[in-house]
Amino acid sequence: MSGYSETFETHVCKGCGTTNEVVIAYAGDYRANERESVECCKCGGWLASDKCWAIYSGQTRDEALLKLRKLQNRA
To answer: pTM of the predicted model, to two decimals?
Structure first.
């Protein structure tokens, strides 16, 4: 995928105080990016949203990346 990129952010859940590592994947073609949101990996509270291809959270970066890789393997 030309232009595909991933970024990482850290968000603290306002509901339970858990630190979440968030991975955001952007498609190379901006038309494939849609408004997506992500929930806390512990309590399910809203963390963030972005116009992207996919967004996942986990207690660690590896946990968030694993969820993204599973999605990519299904495609």
So the answer is: 0.88
